[in-house]
Design brief:
By secondary structure, the protein is an alpha+beta fold. The chain is built from 13 helices and twelve strands.
Length: 433
């Protein structure tokens, strides 16, 4: 019996010892797992930090510059010189040395070896957001983002060159900013020049009777022209740029009001069908002033549309920027149709021959020349002023208005920068062919 009790005690002691050993091993195992998890978390955190601290070289956008024969550009008149000092500074920051590459001694020697005049070209991709990129061995390329992620790889220069030099730029954002500045300057310079021609044309109207209208018209053109005077600050400051767009909306309203007044006035001339020749000639001169203003105001309305698109930097479609143009173009066409009918009726009634620049004699003058006219038909007519015939022909020409509206979308195109003789030019893609 004693042996049985002793055996039970021994078994109990062994079981307790085994249980203690098992629990100790279990606790050690759990502690090891926790330490492993902590180490793993530290590694993951460290890897995340390392990934977030990318190599500065990955933020480097490389734009390729190449030497090309001058014959690549068939018409040098299509080159638009970049003259604004602030835009030039940004271009030089983006593509260092572009303006000087053609006049450096080593490149001059290479040009001489080429046997012909050369130029240098750098292309800034546009219409897509360039991703930060890095120069690859043997190639300089960058991938770009579209609406649904990476769309492809952009070759900065695709044309074969005689000599290629890679130039490092700062960031893709800087590249897109420079591209917008260059295109914006191109559009605004064109618009400003065209507004200058409109203003000069109105200044030549010396016999305009409505001084208040003329004053409002000059004010309108002056304010639109002021916005069109290219300034880097306007394009790079969103708040200022949007304020100019709002100002354009107000100027557009003023322009349509003035155009409506012109249309009503011209339509009023069409009701004067009982005039003698002297009165008709007087009304004709007055109508010419309003007719000239009508054309100029419609031109200004188109320029406001172009300028609005330019300030939106391609973010809003041309169709939306030009939403009012079809309506007011149609109103002008309808008014001109009434004016044409008035002139046709008056010319027939007054016996005016615009081809021979003469009119039929009437009244006492017609009586005097009646008998001589029986022997010489030319004596039945008298000469009229050539300017009178020009005004009749101009106002009475039946035609649909085909306005030379700019439909280009250069903000969506690559921007070609050309270096030639120490100057930098912009070559629009639609003019490159």
């Amino acid at each position: 019996m004693e042996y049985v009790v002793v055996g039970i005690c021994i078994v109990a002691v062994v079981a307790i010892a085994a249980l203690l050993i098992y629990r100790r091993k279990r606790m050690n195992s759990l502690e090891g797992e926790r330490k492993s998890d902590q180490d793993s978390g530290a590694i993951i955190t460290q890897q995340t930090i390392e990934l977030s601290q990318s190599d500065p070289k990955l933020d480097e956008l490389v734009i390729q510059m190449e030497m090309l024969p001058a014959e690549v550009i068939a018409d040098e008149n299509k080159l638009v010189e970049i003259t604004d000092s602030k835009v030039l500074a940004r271009v030089n920051n983006l593509v260092p040395g572009l303006s000087q590459v053609g006049v450096l001694g080593s490149n001059a020697v290479q040009a001489a070896k080429a046997g012909s005049e050369v130029l240098y070209r750098a292309i800034i991709p546009a219409g897509a957001k360039l991703a930060n990129s890095k120069a690859m061995e043997g190639a300089v390329r960058g991938f770009y983002h579209g609406d649904n992620g990476i769309k492809g790889y952009a070759d900065f220069v695709e044309v074969q060159a005689q000599n290629v030099t890679a130039v490092a730029a700062n960031t893709a954002a800087a590249a897109m900013s420079v591209a917008s500045m260059v295109v914006g300057q191109y559009y605004m310079t064109q618009i400003n020049a065209e507004l200058g021609e409109i203003s000069d044309g109105i200044s030549k109207i010396s016999d305009f009777q409505d001084n208040e209208f003329r004053s409002r018209f000059f004010s309108l053109v002056a304010h639109v022209k002021k916005i069109a005077d290219f300034q880097v600050e306007i394009l790079e400051n969103d708040e200022l740029r949007l304020s100019k767009i709002a100002q354009l909306d107000n100027l557009e309203e003023e322009c349509t009001q003035l155009l409506g007044q012109v249309n009503l006035t011209l339509a009023g001339f069409a009701k004067k069908n009982d005039l003698d020749y002297a009165s008709y000639e007087k009304e004709l001169k007055e109508a010419q002033s309003w007719y000239t203003c009508q054309k100029a105001l419609l031109d200004v309305l188109y320029k406001i549309s172009d300028l609005r698109y330019t300030l939106y930097m391609g973010a809003v479609s041309r169709e939306q920027c030009a939403a009012l143009l079809p309506t007011y173009t149609k109103q002008v066409e309808d008014t001109q149709a009434l004016l044409t009918g008035w002139h046709q009726t008056s010319v027939n009634r007054l016996g005016i021959d615009t081809d021979e620049i003469k009119r039929k004699r009437v009244g006492f003058d017609g009586v005097i020349h009646f008998i001589p006219g029986l022997f010489n038909d030319d004596l039945k007519f008298k000469a009229i002023d050539e300017r009178t015939v020009e005004m009749i022909t101009d106002q009475a020409s039946v035609k649909s208005i085909v306005h030379s509206q700019d439909t280009s979308d250069l903000y969506a195109d690559d921007v070609q920068l050309i270096s030639k003789d120490g100057k930098i030019y912009y070559l629009p893609m639609d003019k490159a062919e």
